[in-house]
Structures are given as structure tokens and as C-alpha cells.
Specification:
- It is a single chain.
- With about 170 residues, the chain is α+β, with helices and mostly antiparallel strands.
- About 25% of the residues lie in helices and about 40% in strands.
- A seven-stranded mixed β-sheet has the order 3-6-7-2-1-9-10. Strands 5-4-8-11 form a four-stranded antiparallel β-sheet.
- The longest helix is centred in the first third of the chain and has 17 residues.
- The N and C termini lie close together (about 10 Å).
Length: about 170
């Protein structure tokens, strides 16, 4: 299954670079655990138009991002959205204290960078919630790649599975 998910992820990333319109709804998160800071470092890739649509729905206000550029200024709406839709869960409790670092818009894709403190919690004992855009698209899928001390896991989230335990390779 992991090989299939990796293949799908590679295919999706190749296809995204060729396409400015899309008929599929997918996001990708790369998560690495930093043993020194005890933080999860997250790079999240989403289609900009999907993000704008879901943030507009979430805030009740029209949200638009530029096509190009990096932005490290605080984004309260995006941070609040992430706190509800992307975080680890430990013993049923969300760890959603997100430290937003910025975003980068590249044509039709937005990279969002943030950290999540883990403290003394062992990252290999967590579940993850990754429900971005499930309220917007019935066919939304979200891929999460996580790296913890050389152990890797890939999880595939959909509307019926918005929260999953980590299964290590």
C-alpha cells in the first residue's frame, strides 16, 4: 500500500507542475520531527484556488492570494483554519498549537510552512487529523508523509478517514 501511495504522490506532483486547472482535489503535507526543538516541521502544498475557496467559506470573507511570492507576515485566518484541520492527536487531545512561519505562492500552488510543538510526547504514538477542504470537496484526498528519526510513514486521508494512526514502514 505504501508503494502505491508513494507512486500516486509522485504522479500527482508531476501532474501538478503541468496543470493550471485541475479536476481532482488533493493536498500534500511533508512532516519532519526535529529532535532538538521537539517540533513537527510542516511543509503543506495545496492548490491556491482551493485554499482561497475554503478560507473564504471558513471566514465568510473573500480570500485571494497573489500568484507569485513569499509571505512571512502573520495570516490569522490561515492559522485558525489549520488549527481546526491539521494537527496531531495524543490520547484524544488535539495538539494544535501552530506556529505559522509563512507561505509561498507559485503559480497555482501554495506552500504553507509551520511548526507544531510536541514537547515530551513521543511522535510515534500519535494519530493525525488532516481534514483540509473536506467541507468543500467530496472527492478531496490529503497525503501526509511523516519522518521521525529515520522512520517514514505515508497516510492517505479522505472524508471518511479524517483522522488516522501512524503506521510506520
Amino acid at each position: 500500500m505504501t508503494a502505491l501511495v508513494s507512486f500516486i504522490c509522485s504522479f500527482w506532483l508531476s501532474f501538478v507542475s503541468l496543470s493550471t486547472r485541475h479536476d481532482f482535489h488533493t493536498s500534500l503535507a511533508d512532516v519532519r520531527y526535529n529532535t532538538k526543538s521537539k517540533h513537527f516541521e510542516v511543509a503543506l502544498r495545496v492548490f491556491t484556488d482551493d485554499l482561497e475557496a475554503d478560507l473564504s467559506k471558513f471566514t465568510g470573507k473573500k480570500v485571494r492570494y497573489p500568484q507569485q511570492g513569499k509571505d512571512r507576515s502573520p495570516d490569522a485566518a490561515l492559522t485558525a483554519y489549520l488549527k481546526q484541520h491539521f494537527y496531531p492527536v495524543y490520547k484524544g487531545k488535539p495538539l494544535n498549537d501552530i506556529h505559522y512561519l509563512g507561505k509561498e505562492n507559485i503559480v497555482d500552488v501554495t506552500w504553507i510552512y509551520f511548526e507544531i510543538p510536541a514537547g515530551s510526547i513521543r511522535p510515534d504514538k500519535l494519530r493525525w487529523r488532516y481534514s483540509l477542504m473536506f467541507d468543500l470537496f467530496d472527492d478531496q484526498n490529503n497525503l501526509l508523509n511523516i519522518d521521525y528519526q529515520g522512520r517514514k510513514a505515508t497516510l492517505l486521508f479522505d472524508r471518511t478517514h479524517p483522522e488516522l494512526p501512524v503506521s510506520w514502514d
